[in-house]
Design brief:
Chain lengths: 482, 641
């Protein structure tokens, strides 16, 4: 555990001070190695009970007021692998650009912080890593972002997410003050319970704090502009893995502390999440900027995941865990595709694109399959998770489930529109000088395509992994509510 | 077991070879694609023999998903119904693949074409072989995807792309219904396995027949079956989700024959028959199906009357015929619907392929007003098209005569009024089909000089499938001859299908019509064919080009514009939805979401002070605190290592 956490930090420090010429290959090699290492961890992982983090349960820091624990549970291990996957892809994509060492330093620093977020078993430690993960992305967005009003978008992003995080800290402090507990260890915290108004406040604060990051409607206003202005690598980091921090936070830090079922809050959040799902999809229907479409499609997809979590059902947790992984993989693919298009044709606006399929057939086929994954066609990876999430919401309340289901229609509509406008039709002026897509990029997309099919045909591998965790949460909620 | 695996894998292997081989394979790709489906056809035949001798059997492959107690496996269920569908899919599939070798020989994307076509066969087989709803759903969306790919096959054309997208999205509306139906099944029965659901429904049927309270409330069955039927509406192009099918004619003609006439669009009928026991428990849904089917049947036929594009006429005819099959389902005549599905697959595939041969000969012309007099120019195509026409209008002793007659008879038994409506639909069918035939083959040639010089009969790879389908269209009726010809035992197909789980439990409708009544109905139908057929033949034969090109007025103008349903949908659904998206983006985002951002930010600003988390509400200080904390924790941890 020490190793997989500390190594990225070491690499980050080295990368910061490396000469610019060498850092590219160095980072690529290490991020690839980390990804392989994470796969090794995944295959070694033995899913046990939710709080039984036996595989990695070591004392990280011995202090007088107790100890800080790190550990990966089964959902955490998925997110851990996803972190390494996303960072690897960021490095692959960055090959094509000329970034300074500090960029790579930031990426690895972020990897370090993200692993911390997904493995912290102590609330304060969690908060520390959470904030630490934000710092590098602020720097990346501001330093390498582009477009007009970058500063404005950046300040909004910065203030908004930073303030959002403070809600999380406030909630934890509130918990400690109310229960007079001295330890922020999750196992200790779980022994206490909140009641009455404090419980409501605690829940609301956490929902706001995590909700900004996810983002849940209406807390998403930072997202669209930030995605547009950020460099592709930044967007991939934000959408691929950082928004999973919020979803993961809900599962790890909110669900186990739901003493009373708080049906009203649950209903409101479910309704908001589902409204966001439709809202994002409806907006994506007509936008011209592919990055903006991807941003709102992301809003739509994560809204459904959040709804699945808040339906407080076994299948909802299972679907959420699976879909967090799958959304991470697919959105990396989508932003990767957008970046290739922008590099090769000089534009990412649909009105200026068209006919890429005639120019680059292999690239188009790969892109199409990733798009299929995103619109959840059966036997691609998007379907099993979406199926479980929709079913979970449906079981909670059939009407809500039916409304949430509209997203499968709208999702197909906006995604196929993108494919049709960019890839099909006559070759447009911009596309006529489409640069050939490099083999490296094709292999990178090819690997995502393999994942699209693997997880679509055999999702049970992931579901087996997370089954105990989801069952534990379900039992916990049932126990507390009866 | 092994047969079923080969059956499924063969097309997917063909797909992979053609996809990866791409342009390098050239014309070989057609042979590979056809061979892949032919192998499946052989397997289907052998499986048919096996089912004949030993009955239905299950082929479990692997587990797709466990959800608490529900096990969703990749299971193939081989029974009388799935073998029947398999034979149609792979049999007609092979013929159409063979035909496509000739039809697509000049196209650069021939490898891609056969790859998609093979993928379609694979998906369609999954659909009919799936032992549970998820397997069916996988095939269901798979065929929708292939349909999308093949409609938009000539991807440079923007309009074709629109048609493809429209088809996919309309299908998805239906798919959502189906998905909700599946959720309801899981919630109600705790299983999605067809056999388990059917046995529960059978038990309930028996209970209710003996006057007891059933297992579940009737409204539950109504809800489930309505959801399932919404799925069927999308895939089988019923009102209100039918407008995608005529647009789907943008695809190459073999695709129209295979997907949009013979196989995929019949999936809705298959779905209902597969779950017939559930539908029997929901009389309201059956009535609903009856009404929708009847309305679709008449509307489709009416629009077909006023179209000039030969493929469009055939497409609306398909919509209308599918409507008729649903009417049969609505009165509980499940096997009659399947019978008509089968004969329709024969003659509609024949008509589409004939139309393709015609278009081929006419150098791509699809407007029947520019044809005419082709009788002697392309004899074989003419002969087979004529047979197809006779079959679809129900000329005596052709396959369509028997299947349509059986449905009409069942309808009369149910209610003479419904029979009357169905007869009206059949009458319009006679008129528009004879119109198409006459305008195309009789009279004088109305095309350009170049087209006339270029006229030629298609190669034998295209005519051979026409001949085989023509033979099937003539003799397909023997599969299920009416009572008066051979008594109950002549209904071979009905007997074969009545063994499946969903139909076994349904009490047979015993009250057959008297023989004299049966003959009477047949005579009426025959008289209709003779009178209307000859009337319209002579009417359209005499018409000159000037008369044909006269602008339409009133009702027929409406018909030519498909009663403006597309425009209606566009203005009522598409535009408002797009405006809603714009409203969200330009107004809600600006005037509501963003103020929330800064409002909440200010509230927290003061809340932070109140809670005294830190003394100073300044952002820079927060950063400093975090940095100090980071350094502290890190240095401590380094110390510990």
């Amino acid at each position: 555990m020490h190793l997989i956490l500390i190594l990225p930090l070491v690499v980050a420090i080295i990368a910061f001070f490396m000469p610019h010429k060498l850092v590219k290959e160095f980072s690529l090699a290490f991020s690839g190695a980390f990804f392989l290492l994470s796969l090794y961890v995944l295959f070694q992982y033995n899913p046990l009970n939710y709080y039984n983090f036996t595989y990695y349960n070591e004392i990280f820091l011995a202090g007088t007021g107790g100890s800080l624990h790190l550990g990966l549970d089964s959902i955490g291990v998925l997110m851990f692998v996803l972190t390494n996957f996303v960072v690897f892809y960021v490095n692959i994509l960055a090959r094509n650009k000329s970034y300074t060492s500090s960029f790579y330093g930031c990426v690895f620093l972020m990897q370090f912080a993200l692993i911390g977020v997904f493995s912290s078993l102590n609330a304060i430690l969690f908060y520390f890593f959470w904030e630490l993960a934000l710092l590098p992305i602020y720097y990346i967005v501001y330093q390498w972002g582009s477009g007009k009003d970058l500063t404005k978008a950046f300040v909004r992003f910065f203030v908004y997410t930073f303030v959002g995080s403070l809600f999380i800290l406030t909630a934890f402090i509130l918990f400690a003050v109310e229960t007079k507990t001295t330890s922020f260890e999750i196992t200790e915290m779980a022994k206490n319970s909140l009641a009455g108004p404090t419980q409501i406040l605690f829940t609301l604060f956490l929902i706001i704090g995590f909700g900004v990051k996810i983002p849940i409607f209406p807390l998403h206003s930072w997202q669209g502009n930030t995605y547009r202005k950020a460099p592709a690598e930044g967007t991939i980091l934000l959408s691929g893995i950082m928004l999973k921090m919020g979803l993961f936070g809900l599962i790890r830090w909110l669900v186990p502390f739901q003493e009373e079922s708080l049906p009203i809050i649950q209903k409101i959040i479910l309704a908001l999440a589902i409204f966001g799902t439709i809202y994002g999809a409806a907006i994506a229907l007509r936008r011209n900027d592919m990055k903006l479409i991807a941003a709102f499609s992301s809003l739509s997809h994560v809204g459904l995941i959040a709804a699945g979590i808040f339906s407080y059902k076994y299948i909802g947790f299972q679907g959420a865990a699976l879909q967090m992984l799958v959304h991470g993989i697919n959105i990396v693919g989508i932003f990767y595709i957008i970046d290739i298009i922008e590099r090769s044709s000089g534009t990412r606006y649909l009105s200026e694109l068209g006919g890429i399929a005639s120019k680059a057939p292999v690239f188009s086929t790969l892109a199409f399959i990733i798009i299929l994954g995103s619109i959840a066609v059966p036997l691609t990876n998007g379907f099993p998770g979406e199926f479980l999430l929709l079913m979970s919401v449906f079981m909670y309340q059939p009407i809500l489930g039916a409304i949430a289901g509209i997203t499968i229609i709208l999702g197909a509509a906006y995604m196929l529109r993108v494919f049709q406008r960019a890839f099909m039709g006559e070759v447009s002026e911009h596309v006529s000088e489409f640069q050939p897509v490099s083999n490296g990029d094709l292999y990178a997309l090819g690997f995502i395509v393999v994942l699209v099919f693997l997880l679509g045909i055999y999702p049970q591998y992931v579901l087996d992994l997370t089954a105990n965790g989801s069952q534990y949460l379900t039992n916990l909620l049932e126990l507390k509510n009866n | 077991m092994i047969l079923a695996k080969i059956l499924i894998l063969s097309p997917i292997i063909g797909f992979l070879i053609n996809l990866i081989g791409g342009k390098k394979l050239g014309k070989v790709s057609g042979i590979i694609g056809t061979a892949a489906v032919f192998i499946s056809f052989i397997c289907a035949l052998l499986m048919y023999r096996k089912v004949l001798s030993t009955g239905a059997y299950d082929v479990p492959l692997f587990t797709w998903m466990h959800i608490s107690t529900i096990h969703i496996g990749f299971n193939l269920w081989v029974d009388e119904l799935s073998t029947w569908m398999m034979l149609i899919i792979t049999g007609i599939g092979t013929l159409i693949h063979l035909y496509s070798i000739g039809y697509m020989s000049h196209d650069k994307g021939i490898g891609r074409f056969f790859a998609y076509l093979n993928l379609f066969i694979f998906s369609m087989l999954m659909l009919v072989l799936g032992g549970n709803f998820i397997m069916l759903f996988i095939g269901w969306e798979g065929v929708g995807l292939c349909s999308y790919l093949l409609i938009g096959f000539w991807f440079k054309n923007v309009e074709y792309g629109h048609a493809a997208r429209k088809a996919f999205i309309m299908n998805r509306i239906g798919d959502l219904g189906l998905l909700l139906g599946i959720f309801l099944c899981i919630q109600t029965f705790g299983t999605i396995n067809f056999n388990e659901i059917n046995s529960i429904a059978a038990e309930d049927l028996a209970l209710k027949a003996s006057g007891q309270l059933g297992l579940f409330q009737p409204y539950i069955y109504t809800a489930i079956t309505l959801c399932l039927f919404i799925g069927a509406m999308g895939k089988s192009a019923q009102i209100p989700l039918y407008t995608w099918l005529p647009d789907a004619m943008a695809g190459p003609t073999p695709v129209s024959a295979l997907i949009h006439a013979a196989t995929m669009v019949t999936a809705g009928i298959y779905l209902v028959v597969r779950n017939a026991a559930l539908f029997e428990l929901a009389p309201f849904t059956l009535d609903f199906i009856l009404v929708i089917g009847m309305a679709t049947s008449i509307l489709g036929a009416l629009i077909g009357l006023f179209q000039n594009d030969i493929k469009k006429v055939l497409a609306y005819s398909t919509v209308s015929q599918l409507g008729l099959m649903f009417v049969a389902l609505g009165v509980g005549a499940y096997t009659s619907a399947m019978f008509h599905l089968t004969t329709h697959a024969f003659f509609k595939a024949l008509l589409f392929l004939g139309a393709g041969s015609l278009i081929h000969a006419m150098s791509g012309e699809q407007n029947i007003l520019s044809m005419g007099g082709l009788k002697n120019k392309i004899k074989l195509t003419h002969l087979t098209f004529a047979i197809g026409t006779l079959a679809i209008i129900g000329a005596p002793f052709m396959s369509g005569f028997f299947s349509k007659d059986e449905i009409l008879e069942k309808l009369y038994n149910h209610s003479p009024i419904i029979w009357g409506f169905a007869l009206a639909s059949a009458a319009i069918t006679i008129i528009y089909m004879v119109r198409v035939y006459t305008l195309t083959f009789s009279g004088k040639f109305r095309g350009t000089k170049e087209q006339e010089d270029h006229l030629h009969e298609s190669p034998s790879s295209m005519t051979l499938p026409l001949i085989i389908l023509a033979i099937l269209s003539v003799f397909g009726g023997v599969l299920n001859l009416p009572h008066i010809i051979g008594g109950g035992s002549s209904q071979k197909m009905a007997i074969w299908l009545s063994k499946i789980n969903s139909l076994k439990s349904i009490p047979a409708h015993v009250n057959h019509l008297s023989h004299s009544m049966e003959i009477m109905l047949m005579l009426i139908a025959t008289a209709l064919v003779v009178v209307l057929g000859s009337l319209s033949y002579f009417k359209y034969k005499k018409q000159t080009l000037a008369e044909l090109n006269e602008p339409r007025q009133g009702f027929s103008l409406w018909g030519e514009h498909k009663f403006y349903v597309d425009e209606l949908y566009h203005n009522v659904f598409v535009k408002p939805l797009e405006s809603l998206g714009d409203f969200f983006f330009y107004y809600l985002e600006h005037y509501f979401i963003q103020p929330i951002t800064f409002g909440s930010y200010r509230i927290l600003y003061s809340a932070g002070k109140l809670l005294r988390i830190v003394q100073n509400g300044n952002i820079e200080y927060y950063l400093v605190y975090i940095a100090i904390g980071a350094v502290l924790v890190l240095s401590l941890s380094m110390f510990v290592f």
